[in-house]
Design brief:
about 325 residues, alpha/beta, Rossmann fold, 2 domains, five-stranded parallel beta sheet, 14 helices, binds glyoxylic acid
């Protein structure tokens, strides 16, 4: 009987995912464990054929070299900037992600942050819990309207489009920036108008970042772009922390050059820039864009199915790096 592939699941996951994985693999799981440090991950990965990772595990050349049997890396996330794809390609390691499953859940969180930052929900909650609410006041916690304000979406992929659909319910005109304009039929359906990036920042009342992280997107939102925004504008980031120059954002918020920000992602997460914590006009949540039970189970199962296809010698449905297939074929032969 041929041996079943051995896989490591590096992250805590739901039993549905573990059960599925156990039907197909010899599984080393991480239930109840804290996230492995890099050195520990290297040790745990040794001898494995595949690995199911969380978005926080760094998969790089050194790690792959320390685990030469690994043939597939499945990330339970849509963003895969934590995986060195060139290193995977060079070693014939197939890498997969989980697109399409978390769009609505992440767009919901995006909209929650738009509302929370615009209407000062974090401040309101802190005010109430501190027992400071003594009387009705006409100008207590005045915020920014959301309805009928222009929403600027940077990155019009699936999540950006899901956000644009939600904007319709708030009668918000939508402008967007994307490297390539989306199909005009999609623009028409969403009522979305393409703008150059600097014009979008100057025009929008709410800017929401929905683009993937890449070297080219590093600090895309810098002091100069922030300076284009209206003093009443709100910035929301549900993409990746590194896209925003966090120090520049903190300055803009501190000096009230923009009204507020809603952030799910951070440059050095889970470490936080202490400057952010001092700001009342920033709503901060800990990278929970896809965090509902249903969606996280679906993401875990999707990653496990990708791993199954890859380790059975097939082409996984969500293969990121078809470039690795030829090299992978050589390894299998
Ligand atoms: C979450 O950030 C993801 O990329 O899925």
């Amino acid at each position: 009987m041929s041996q079943r592939p051995r896989i490591l699941i590096t992250c805590d996951t739901f039993t549905e995912v573990i059960d599925f994985a156990r039907e197909h693999f010899e599984v080393v799981d991480s239930q109840g464990r804290a996230q492995s440090a890099a050195a520990e991950l290297r040790e745990r990965l040794h001898g494995m054929d595949g690995v199911l990772v969380a978005g926080t595990d760094r998969i790089d050349a050194a790690l792959l070299d320390a685990a030469p049997a690994v043939r597939a890396v499945a990330i339970a996330a849509v963003g895969y900037n934590s995986i060195d794809i060139a290193a995977c390609n060079a070693r014939g390691v197939l890498a997969t992600n989980t697109p399409g499953i978390l769009d609505d859940t992440t767009a919901d969180l995006g909209f929650a942050l738009i509302l929370a930052a615009s209407r000062r929900l974090g401040e309101g909650e802190r005010y109430l819990r501190a027992n400071r609410w003594k009387r009705w006041e006409n100008d207590l916690l005045l915020g920014q309207d959301v309805h009928h304000r222009t929403l600027g979406i940077v990155g019009m992929g699936r999540i950006g489009q899901a956000l644009a659909r939600r904007a319709g319910g708030f009668d918000m005109p939508v402008v967007y920036h994307n490297r390539n304009r989306v199909d005009s039929a999609i623009e028409d359906r969403l009522g979305a108008r393409w703008l150059p990036l600097d014009e979008l920042f100057a025009t929008a009342d709410v800017v929401c970042l929905c683009l993937p992280y890449s070297q080219a997107a590093h600090h895309l939102v810098d002091a100069a772009l922030l300076a284009r925004m209206k003093p009443t504008a709100v910035l929301v980031n549900i993409a990746r922390g590194g896209i925003v120059d966090e120090n520049a954002l903190i300055e803009a918020l501190r000096e009230r050059r923009i009204a507020a920000a809603g952030l799910d992602v951070y440059e050095g997460e889970p470490a936080l820039n202490p400057g952010l914590l001092e700001l009342d006009n920033a709503v901060l949540v800990p990278h929970i864009g896809s965090a509902t039970r249903e969606t996280r189970i679906a993401m875990g199962l999707c990653a496990a199915r990708n791993l199954k296809a890859a380790l059975e010698g097939g082409v996984p449905p969500n293969l990121i790096n078809p470039e690795a297939l030829a090299q992978a074929g050589t390894r299998r032969a």
